[in-house]
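Archive entry: two folds, one per protein. Generate the first.
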Amino acid sequence: LPFFPIRSGSLDGSIYFFSNGPFEISSWEGTKVTLVPNDQWSDQIGNIASHEIQGLEFVGYDSFSDATEGFLNGEVDVVNVTTSQLSSDFQIPSEGVIDGKTRHITYGVFVNSESTSFSQVESRKALALGLNKRELLNMLSVEIQRGHSPANSWIPEGISGSDNSAGLALSGSKELATDYWARGQNVDGISIELLYSAEDSLHAELAVELKKLWEQKLPLQLNLRPEKPEEYFADLKTGRYQLAIGGWQADYPNAANWLHPFVTDSDENFLNFTDDKYDSFLQSADMANSRDERFSEYAKAHNYLIEEGVIIPILHPVSLALVRSEFSNAVNAMFDFQGMWTFD
């Protein structure tokens, strides 16, 4: 991990670092690990010397109740929590608040553009028109509601290049979805399949609610197609689906990780999406002379992907934490890059 003690070496006369994050370990005693600023770190924004955080201490507890007791006793300022731990009888201490951070994961519906029913952009957009993600989230179980936020952006919040304007426009549109469906040359009463993983509770709940919503607003019959995980991933990878519920995450928060999979010649292009205009946005981003120019091209590519209706973003998972009120702003800023409360 980047905060492990720095170890340097050399290769062809050049010094390199195995790990050189903004913090380094100063002590590790029992369940307590203390980090201090790494004076050899210089990031793209500024040197660590200009940062306000002078120390971080991580403390391990055997149970959630021990951790909350430590919070009440002033031993710790942040306790990461799960949705199940936030049960109806959990009392938030007066000195604390529950904060949430959007994780770098997006769940949504993939629309196979090579499927006859969705070969026209109008048919694909009909699915997204008026699909209010907040209302959809409220139809799901309380535990899923607590652990997710509605998404209109394929690229998660906080990542440069993320832009939810196209998704918001479709979600809040007052245009008739049936008009778009008719323009897509689809007949009334057509039967469509929705693929999802049978062993994923989020997939299962979304499938049921999407079936209700789409059968209410469009002249179609939606057949649910649950599959075992290995079959589901195989069919998704090879494009054997019309609609599919799925998710995407990346090892690090770069907009390209959410966009490059869908260029025409990508091996990961499970959308079967082939579009020269989309490819050109990413080519321009790769050749950009500045960060601002690159992120601008990423935003164009992202909005085009949503406008073409091949992806309908629905939810982002949220990591939750009990935070001492006075440190809420500082902790939020500290975890902006990580996009999550824990290092798992």
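Generate the second and append.
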Amino acid sequence: AATAGAARRSLFALEWTAAGSVSDLPVSNLLAVLGGEDRGVIQALRDAGFEVSTYSDPHCPGEAIERQAGLPETVLFDCASNRPDPAEATRELLARVLGAVQEWLSDERLAARQLVFLTRGAIAVGLGEEVGDLAAAAAWGLVRSAQIEHPDRFVLVDVDDGGEWPNGLRRALAIGESQVAIRAGKPHVARMAPALLPAADAPPSDEPPTILAREGTVLVTGATGELGSVLVEHLVARHGVR
């Protein structure tokens, strides 16, 4: 609330908005699925009209090409973990996702295809929605890094527990976004939007403001680089912290 003018107008936040109509964009019904047996993913896709080829070993799509003379252009990797402990589930899923990413990038025969990572509850889209799968959320972070280094090779799709997500997947693949969330069968895309902030003349909140205590010590982790040095200098010069 203390910001004003251009500084206030320059604050943005990430929002998930419903994608526009994509009914005129053709999407192939051919899909290859790596994994997916445990959560009924394969059956749900077939019920929605997809022709699904299944592969139990998610790390060897290149061998599938040799055996069956080709993979569909889109290959789906089901990011599911059956381990009840969140830490174990995260380690197990990240190892599989990392292995799939590395294998995918190392095989030149897969250069023209996209690997779609399917998660459920990895991100929060609407107000009041919570992240339901911490392991899948970690997988999103890993794949996002791979997307930066290798554009157009990987796609992230997060779905809800409803039964309409397979039809939403068809529309999600048509819009060509690298990160999509499907809610109630409708694809949502991430966009930057002006942050909603209280007006500068709004009455003070009952919540106490967060202030850097000058009498204390501020610890800045990972501040050995240039950006960290600038941040530390700003804290000392502008806020008088130690």
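Annotation attached to the second fold: The CA atoms of residues 165 and 210 lie 41 Å apart. The beta strands are 12-18, 30-34, 51-55, 74-78, 114-120, 154-159, 179-183, 186-194.
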